[in-house]
Amino acid sequence: MPRPADPAGALSELALELFLEHGYDATPMSLVAQRAGLTKAGVYHHFESKEHLLYVVHKRHIEQLLLPLIDDAEREPAAEKRLRSFLNEYALLQTRDPSLRLLINEAKRLEPAHGAEIRDAWRRGVHLIRDAVAEMKKDGRCAPDLDPTYAAFAAIGMCSWICNWYDYTRPESGPAVARTMVDLFMEGLLRGKSSEWPR
Amino acid sequence: MPRPADPAGALSELALELFLEHGYDATPMSLVAQRAGLTKAGVYHHFESKEHLLYVVHKRHIEQLLLPLIDDAEREPAAEKRLRSFLNEYALLQTRDPSLRLLINEAKRLEPAHGAEIRDAWRRGVHLIRDAVAEMKKDGRCAPDLDPTYAAFAAIGMCSWICNWYDYTRPESGPAVARTMVDLFMEGLLRGKSSEWPR
Hints:
Two copies of one chain form a homodimer.
Chain A lengths: L6 H16 L6 H8 L3 H7 L3 H25 L4 H18 L2 H8 L5 H27 L9 H13 L13 H16 L10
Helix pairs in contact in A: 1-2, 1-4, 2-3, 4-5, 4-7, 5-7, 5-8, 5-9, 7-8, 8-9
């Protein structure tokens, strides 16, 4: 039996393409309708507003791309391996997916309840890093005065910034970019290891 | 003798306050005029469009806050000291200035020529980091396979991301945040120093 059609999903994918092509502001609902071969009322049957459409685009993107990375990483019991693996996959995702830049930049358009839901998903990634750093710090593997929350935002920031400068016409450079981010962060975290500070 | 009045400068400061309060989209030129006690024509006498106003806001901000940091850093001949000092000052600036978030996010609204001019100023910061890293690498102080450009974007990213999470109601935490960014990056860069790789 074929899978039931998912018109809202297909429309949100089309909308994301149009946002990427024209920008969010310059993509009216009428253009989404026109490209989908629907009337405007046909689009509003699935999304009550353009903001609602943006929210669905965000939600699908997070569910399909970000949450699986977090779920995978959380299955790894060793903190350092969990952290390395998540950061590498997240940085690779940034090099593969130019739409993250649009989504990050337009997240502020979401209504408060939608914005909070999307931020909660991103926060899971920050907490995954923070908790792994805290575990490594407890084991005496990081500087004793390191703040795991600040460190988590440092890691998320260096990786999330990739979408602001990465050349998406050179996808073969993605693994080297991801490795640089992971190595710089992990070596900074594990600096000097046991020898440099008193226990 | 009093300094000559700078009505365009005063208007651009007022506009930045309104952008921060209401968002860029929700700040019409008529509101800028109303708050300034001018007619709309009075505002358009100084700025030919809202985009032009945004450009002037960017340009003033960069000239007053970013370029002095770069100029100061460039006077330091030692690469490591230059890099530490610039990153620390740039991270501190992020913790002190909530308007950077708005400017970074709205930079895409600038017309191509204006956007290119603003990006050139930011690029000076990236090049300052890249060149310092390249110098340290040449002296055998970084991993021999490190790409100085990727490293520069890692540093700019971790510091520029601060405006996305920093709690501006707790300015006293700024120096600790900046120190965390600088320490993580610099230790990551200088990892293992001479012992871990062949010369």
